[in-house]
Amino acid sequence: MSVLRGRGLRKRYDSLDVVNGVDLDIASGECFGLLGPNGAGKTTTLRLCLGLTYPDAGEIELLGEPVPVRARQARQRVGVVPQFDNLDPDFTVAENLLVFGRYFGLPRDAVAAKVPALLEFAGLTGREDARINTLSGGMKRRLTLARALINDPQLLFMDEPTTGLDPQARHLIWERLRRLTQEGKTLILTTHFMEEAERLCHRLAIMDRGRLIAVGSPRALIAEHIEPHVVEVHGNGFERWMGRAKQLAGRVERAGDTAFVYAADPAPVLGDLSARPELSYLHRPASLEDVFLKLTGRDLRD
Asked: In terms of CB atoms within 10 Å, which of 2, 31, 58, 295 comes out highest?
């Protein structure tokens, strides 16, 4: 069953097509990722789906409700984790949850009964009376996630949920998000962390310049777009060696002072490198990041 369906979504600002003919169909219980460079249109797409921005064209159905006409009704069953934490610093941890629950019209007693379980989920048991400015960045992010669950949503939108967190905090949030999908909730997230997308997403879409340019599972996209082996090479003379690499492998790219060699069989490349001590190399399996860079390019986006 589809919990979110979009057809032909378009949004234009001045002369720029920020969202340009996007189709989405997200099934119940899946974690769906939306990836893309800065300015690709990811956040605008999420805002369109939530009814926070009106489309110039297209149709949206969110949890069976037409958007934006009945967006408010649909959002009663949706949770949102924004890109930047917007917790109220004047309230304690528990008060942030209690006040947010009242926005959904939930009785105070019902919200209060949910607080202990949400604090346990966020790893904040015992911190209910703490002020927001005493929390670490990871704690604030986990509290923002717990707050988004106050209305027991069927669908959770997350805009870069682990940006700025250290590895320990990131892994804890990943574990919590996997728990939510195991409970049957549907997750939609944007992220710049390819490892995060590979670990969490059942399916994902790569977006660039307002369009979806690839959709599928991480493993399927890697198999479709990238050779299975990658050898990263750098050191004195790597530019001269690239000519040799092109004879040994299917595809060679340069980024700064590193050559990226993509091969179905890496043995000839590795054998040649073993006789070149002036060159350093890393042999690894292809990843989602390789797919992302191939489809969107290596140039910086501001």
From this structure: 31
- Rounded Cα distance, 280 and 95, in Å: 55
| Same-domain check for residues 145 and 163 | no
Measure the CA–CA gap between 297 and 290, rounded to whole angstroms: 10
First to last CA, the chain: 38
Asked if 205 and 220 touch (Cβ cutoff 8 Å), the reply is no
Per the CB < 8 A criterion, the answer to whether 28 and 2 are in contact is yes
Question: pLDDT tens, 200-210?
Answer: 999 999 999 99
pLDDT band, residue 1 (cuts 50/70/90) = confident
**Same domain, residue pair 66 and 166:** yes
> Quick check: 301 pLDDT over 90?
no
Containing domain of residue 112, as a range? 92-150
Single-letter residue type at 161:
P
Query: Do 148 and 80 contact (CB within 8 A), yes or no?
Result: yes
Number of domains comprising the chain: 3
Residues 172 and 276 in one domain: no
Q: What are the tens digits of pLDDT across the range 66-109? A: 999 999 999 999 999 998 888 999 999 999 999 999 888 889 99
The separation between CA 129 and the C-alpha centre of its own chain, rounded to angstroms, equals 31
State pLDDT tens for residues 159-169.
988 888 888 88
The one-letter amino acid code at 57 reads: A
**Looking at the structure, do residues 119 and 268 belong to the same domain, yes or no?**
no
Cα separation, 112 vs 120, in Å, equals 14
Q: Is residue 82 part of a domain?
A: no
Q: What pTM does this model have?
A: 0.91
